[in-house]
Amino acid sequence: MSLSRYHKQMLFAGVGRDGQQRLADSHVLLIGCGALGCVLADTLVRAGVGRIRLVDRDFVELSNLQRQILFDEQDVTDHLPKVIAAERRLRRVNSEISIEPVVADVDWSNIGEFADGVSLILDGTDNFEIRYLINDVSLQTGIPWIFTGCTGSVGQVMPVFPHDSACLRCLMPGPPPPGSTETCDTAGVLGPAVSAVASWQAALALKILTGHAHEVDRKLTIIDIWTGSFRQVDVSKLRATSQCPACFQAERLWLCGTQKSSSTILCGRNAVQVTPPEKLELSLADVANRLQAAGDVVSNPFLVRVTISESYGEHPIEMTIFPDGRAIIRGTEDPAMARTLYARYIGT
Questions:
Q1: Beta strands in the chain (DSSP E)
Q2: Would you please indicate which residues are annotated as catalytic (active-site) residues?
Q3: Is 201 left (phi over 0), alpha (psi -120 to 50) or beta?
Q4: CATH 3.40.50.720 fits 4-248, yes or no
Q5: Which stretch of DSSP H or E encloses residue 98?
Q6: What is the tens place of the pLDDT at every residue in 242-270?
Q7: What is the C-alpha to C-alpha distance for residues 153 and 150, in angstroms, rounded to an integer?
Q8: Most buried pick, 79, 130, 201, 316, via CB within 10 A?
């Protein structure tokens, strides 16, 4: 890999030539390629991180374009999975690094494989179930990760160094109860807030990957881009005082699969994701053929989408099916209804 393209970055004392080589030798797992993930992926690719594995379960929609900077209207028209659209854009930015796109729903059965051999895990997700799963695999493997979230104009970032700093369960013993916190569906989300928070996360990532992890503050950072406020909470002593079971008793509730759901309401989408108990290997051509009688079908090498002709309520039902049997059912936020539709049109 030629380092000359990173000349201005190497002039910065915190990076230098040695730090740039460390970046080239690094391998990062980025889970989630939505608003946060787009900024993270773009920044790391331009910075010269040698290998990046992008994992996301979703496809590009028109409402994404307000804040998800790697996508455009053609990606919406082509019904592309986010990681496929992102990879195509990122390869035009930096063809010298390795970008591995994975269209998948991260869960307890596959996160170990995705994390194998990586230097750092970055949180680009929008739900706590996956964050607690990342936290478990981080503690299990010793791989550091960076927790990040953004809603409305407010974002928060916290680095986690296993067995050294506070983990997510030290900070929050469990996910917040449904309805107890704002979501992007109730509070919206500002593009500049995403960019600011993800850039802070990316800066921490570069600091860790260039060999300066010991200089990273053990703090929870909270940024409100609308009010202009910036606050940091010292969590350096939280691990010792919390005595959380994940850190001190090696409890891995999410990684062992005891904390999981088969259906997930997708924030701000009027949609539910349904995941079969066991991963399948569907023939998308066969699926598309079988669904012809159900409504209008479009397909590509990555998914099949059908708009159901039969009425099921106020909103039309649109189903997007992936090769592993997972489906995103738009037009309802009722998990029971989503599972019924899945069974009716795809099978149990």
A1: 27-31, 51-56, 98-103, 120-123, 145-151, 154-160, 219-224, 229-234, 263-266, 271-274, 295-300, 303-308, 318-321, 327-330
A2: 184
A3: alpha
A4: yes
A5: strand 98-103
A6: 999 999 999 999 999 877 666 677 766 78
A7: 7
A8: 201
